[in-house]
Structures are given as structure tokens and as C-alpha cells.
Write a structure and sequence with these properties.
By secondary structure, the chain is of the alpha+beta class. Helix content is 44%, strand content 13%. It folds into three domains: 119 residues, no CATH class; 129 residues, Serine Threonine Protein Phosphatase 5, Tetratricopeptide repeat (Alpha Horseshoe); 225 residues, Sandwich (Jelly Rolls). Bound molecules: 2-acetamido-2-deoxy-beta-D-glucopyranose (2 copies).
């Protein structure tokens, strides 16, 4: 159990990290390009300086060349060289004119533009924690999607070439990060890859001996888990058996329970099973049995609404209990692009902070969301109306029937661990007293409608680990479900999470519809009898 709590904690830490925002990574990319241009400049300037220094040295050696080679006589054993008028003239000239040239050249601080850049963008520059976060995001991707580590090391993720590969040093780092996060089996596998790579590279980025030492302690730590009687070893990331030495029959039987034979769904499942379901669903595995699966269907729906008589809604049922449906082709590509454009400056604004008129970028790490209301853009007003027609629920923001829309951007590894959307029903009375009266008046989040504003190259599904359903991002479609039962109680089967984005970037727009104003609206069209 400790292990999974740990994993969940790590997941939420990484979520707010640099990797989870495409916008943030874009800024880093721009910053690096800026730095590289400035470094080129630095190299050019430094070369000019070095040439000045070399020129001086050459002048010096040239003028003494013949003396040094003893081709001309030097009176008084060299001490009288100053008695040679030409030598004396050149000596004076060098130290007055030429030396001054060097002095002037050297008086400019060519590193200054770089110092200034790194100072101005200090908050954007990633630190040690960011690197750890990035490594953990990679580890989590590998884990969730069961990526072939050899392929990852060679620069191939889910069949998509990355145009770069990992060095032995990178792989060693990933091994260390996995180890520190308690993923022992993963750590050992990364270290195996590091070893292979180090041999190929001939110990250039990391040495075989260094990796071996780390691997020995990882294996040791891994095997010690099987000796402990105070833990359930199946809660830990292991190979299921000790790598060195033998396993007692009792421990072997325990370890074998780690491989899951039956899928568990529903409200009673353990956190452990929820986690396994989440990852399996993210990989696109089917958890429902064939009978349940056969009940998921697609149909067209006009809802006797003039809006949809001409162009019926294309509905795909993704889960029956709770009912989760995906509406296809609700928005056109042009509309989704425009919605992203509307949100983008708001995402950027929270990150770019002008300081004394200069271009200082300050990054709040969690600012990957933008909030947009119906009055912010004519298209937003239209989308609110569309949501009202599709769901039959009121989306009147002024009346508190719906919230302003949250547009969110997830980058590589960006994900959202399983959670509920309702805000109030599961709160204790002592917590409720801190809720803003306006929120209480609007009531809970009855329903969620989430638009996918982009396709995702790999990963990024919305999955329901208790219900066993999954929805795949498709630009212009939307997923809809009720968070509350008709009785007003919480529907705990709506537990849902966003899978890590493996490749690409994911954009969604969240409509949360409140209880207020829906009394006579919640219709039967979307009920399971369908
Ligand atoms: C991983 O990929 C490599 C090379 O593509 C292959 O040789 C190896 O068998 C794969 N490993 C697994 C466990 O699929
Ligand atoms: C790398 O290091 C190992 C251990 O020190 C050594 O046995 C091996 O020959 C080295 N390989 C190369 C190419 O230097």
C-alpha cells in the first residue's frame, strides 16, 4: 500500500511539472534558441579577441626572431638590445599602440549578454527538480504504456522515432530516479540498458564499473523486499522473485499473486486495482466482459431538437454504468483551433510577466489552464448554446448554472490522476462551511462535458478505473457524463483520470454544469435505458 500511495504522490508532483505543459516547453525551446544565438555571438567576439592576442605575440616573436635564432649579433649579451634603435622603436610601439588595442578589446565583457539572459529568464531555467521530474515523467510513461526499454533507449517510442537516443549516462540517471522513487524492478531494467549502452559507447558517457556498482545495490534492495515479513511484497515493484538467491515456497506463493488473474471493477476495488485498471485502460486494454462490451454502441440522435434534425448527433456509448457518451463532430477543426487560440494568450499571460518593460518571463508551474467565459468571444457564446442543446441542461453562467470554461493543455507525460469532478457532496460539514456561499448556491457539478480540442498522437485517453470505460481524444468530439445520481448523491463510479500524453500534446475544454437551474432539465434521453 505504501508503495502505491508513494506512486500516486509522485504522480501528482510531476503533474505540476515542466514537462506537463507544452506551452512551457515551447518557452524553454525559444530560450535555448536565444541562448545559442548569443553563444555564437560570444564565440565570434572571443575569436576577435584571441586574434588580437595572437597578433601581439606574433609581433613580439617576429621582431626578436633573428635575435632568437642568433642570426644577428646582440651587443652586451642581450642586455644592450635596447641600444638597437629599431628594436627600441618597436618595443615602444608595441607597448603603446598594440597593447592598447588589446586592452580595448579586452575591456568589453562579452559574457554580459548571456549573464543578462540567464538572469532575466532565471525563473524559466529548469533546475535539478525539473530534471528529476522530467526523468520521472519518462519512467511513468514507460510504466503506464509498458514501453520496450530497449526501443526507448534507442530513441523509439510506440513506433514513433524521436530523432535522438539516450546515452548510458541518461539511462543511468533514469535508473537512479526509478530507484529513488521505489520502482526497483524498473530501476534494474534501466540499469541493464545503461550497461549495454556503456559497452557500446566504450565507457564515454558513463563507465561500466560505475553502473555495475549501482546495479548491485539496486538488486540487493530489490531482493531484501522478499525477506521482509512486515510488508506485502506484491505492493512493490519487483520481478516477483529475488534475482540472487532462492525463495521459500511461502514467499514464492505470495509473490505469484502479483500477476492479476481477474479484472476487478466497481465501487469495492482496492486502490491497487484501481491503479492497475487505470494503466490497463490507458494502454487501450478492454476490461469489460464481452457481454458488457457488446452493449456499447453508436447511434444517431435528433433529440426532436431543430438543431439536430438536420444534422443528427453522432453518439457513441463508452460506458453504461455510469453512462458515459462521446459526441462526435460537435466542433469543426476551425472552431477547435480558434478555441485553442482564444485560450493561448491567457495561458501565456500567466507565464509572461513584464518587468520594467523588459521581456521577463516568469513561470508559475501550474498555469496550464485558461478560464474563458461566454462573453470572452462570440464563438464561446455559441459553444455554450451548443452544450445546452446537446445536454439539455442550462449553461447560464450569470445564473450560476454552469462555470466558465476551463481550457487545459497537457504536454508530454501530462496527466491527471483519477479523481471525481463533484466538489460538495463528498465534503464533511466542517469543510462545507469554508465553501464560498456563491458556490453553495450554484450547487454541485451535476455533469461534465469535456471537448477534445486536439488529437493526441499517442496516449491521453480519459479513463474510468472503477467503471472500466475509456474515451479516446478525437478533435472536435466531446465526452459527457453525470457526476451525481438522480437522487443527488455522488456517483462514485465516475472516478476518472487523464492518461499521460506519450507523444504529442492534448487540449481539452471542460464544461462543468451545476445543479442549480437543472431541476426540470435533467432529461431521460441520456439515461441507461437507451
Ligand atoms: C524490445 O525491442 C527489441 C528491439 O526492437 C527486441 O529485440 C526485444 O525483444 C524487445 N523486448 C521485448 C520485451 O519485447
Ligand atoms: C570499459 O570499462 C570496463 C571496466 O572498467 C573495461 O573492462 C572495458 O574494457 C572498458 N571498455 C572500453 C572500450 O574502454
Amino acid at each position: 500500500m505504501i508503495q502505491y500511495v508513494l506512486v500516486l504522490l509522485l504522480a501528482s508532483v510531476v503533474q505540476s511539472d515542466i514537462f506537463s505543459s507544452t506551452a512551457h516547453l515551447q518557452n524553454l525551446l525559444h530560450l535555448e534558441r536565444h541562448l545559442v544565438t548569443t553563444l555564437h555571438d560570444y564565440v565570434d567576439r572571443t575569436e576577435v579577441k584571441l586574434n588580437e592576442v595572437k597578433r601581439y605575440l606574433n609581433l613580439f616573436y617576429d621582431s626578436y626572431q633573428e635575435v632568437l635564432e642568433e642570426k644577428v649579433p646582440v651587443p652586451g649579451n642581450g642586455e644592450d638590445m635596447v641600444a638597437n634603435p629599431l628594436q627600441a622603436y618597436q618595443l615602444v610601439k608595441r607597448l603603446s599602440v598594440d597593447w592598447n588595442t588589446i586592452r580595448r578589446a579586452m575591456s568589453t565583457d562579452d559574457w554580459l549578454p548571456i549573464r543578462k539572459l540567464t538572469k532575466d529568464y532565471r525563473q524559466l531555467m529548469p533546475g535539478k527538480e525539473d530534471l528529476q521530474g522530467a526523468a520521472l515523467a519518462l519512467v511513468r510513461l514507460q510504466d503506464t504504456y509498458k514501453l520496450n526499454m530497449t526501443d526507448v533507449a534507442r530513441g523509439n517510442i510506440l513506433g514513433v522515432p524521436q530523432g535522438t537516443s539516450l546515452t548510458a549516462r541518461d539511462l543511468l540517471f533514469l535508473g537512479k530516479q526509478s530507484f529513488n522513487a521505489g520502482y526497483y524492478a524498473h530501476a534494474i531494467r534501466w540499469l541493464d540498458e545503461a550497461m549495454t549502452k556503456a559497452r557500446l559507447e566504450g565507457n564515454t558517457t558513463a563507465g561500466v564499473t560505475e553502473i555495475l556498482a549501482f546495479q548491485a545495490s539496486a538488486v540487493d534492495m530489490h531482493d531484501k523486499l522478499f525477506e521482509r515479513t512486515d510488508i506485502d511484497v506484491s505492493d512493490y515493484d519487483t520481478f516477483g522473485y529475488p534475482l540472487n538467491g532462492t525463495l521459500s515456497a511461502h514467499r514464492a506463493a505470495l509473490a505469484s499473486t502479483r500477476t492479476r488473474k481477474t479484472v476487478k471493477l466497481g465501487n469495492g476495488v482496492s486502490v491497487h486495482d484501481e491503479q492497475l485498471n487505470y494503466m490497463a485502460l490507458c494502454r487501450g486494454e478492454t476490461l469489460l466482459n464481452p457481454v458488457q462490451e457488446s452493449k456499447l454502441k453508436c447511434y444517431h440522435e435528433t433529440r426532436k431538437h431543430p438543431f439536430f434534425l438536420l444534422q443528427p448527433l453522432r453518439v457513441e456509448v463508452r460506458s453504461l454504468e455510469p453512462l458515459v457518451v462521446q459526441f462526435h463532430n460537435l466542433l469543426t477543426e476551425g472552431q477547435t483551433d480558434l478555441l485553442r487560440q482564444i485560450a493561448e494568450p491567457k495561458l501565456a499571460r500567466s507565464m509572461v510577466q513584464a518587468d520594467k518593460g523588459s521581456e521577463v518571463v516568469s513561470v508559475s508551474r501550474t498555469s496550464q489552464n485558461a478560464w474563458v467565459g461566454p462573453k470572452d468571444h462570440p464563438l464561446m457564446a455559441r459553444v455554450y448554446k451548443l452544450v445546452e442543446s446537446v445536454t439539455g441542461l442550462s449553461t447560464d453562467v450569470d445564473e450560476g448554472h454552469a462555470e466558465i470554461v476551463q481550457i487545459a493543455n497537457y504536454g508530454m507525460g501530462g496527466h491527471y490522476t483519477p479523481h471525481f469532478d463533484y466538489l460538495l457532496v463528498d465534503k464533511e460539514p466542517e469543510e462545507i462551511q469554508y465553501v464560498h456561499p456563491k458556490e453553495l448556491d450554484a450547487g454541485d457539478r451535476t455533469a461534465t462535458l469535456m471537448f477534445y480540442l486536439s488529437d493526441v498522437t499517442r496516449g491521453g485517453a480519459t479513463v474510468f478505473p472503477k467503471a472500466g470505460g475509456s474515451v479516446w481524444p478525437k478533435q472536435g468530439s466531446a465526452v459527457f457524463w453525470y457526476n451525481l445520481k438522480k437522487s443527488g448523491g455522488p456517483d462514485t463510479l465516475t472516478l476518472h483520470g487523464a492518461c499521460p500524453v506519450a507523444i504529442g500534446s492534448k487540449w481539452v475544454a471542460n464544461f462543468w454544469i451545476r445543479e442549480k437551474g437543472q431541476i426540470f432539465r435533467r432529461r431521460c434521453e441520456l439515461d441507461p435505458e437507451l
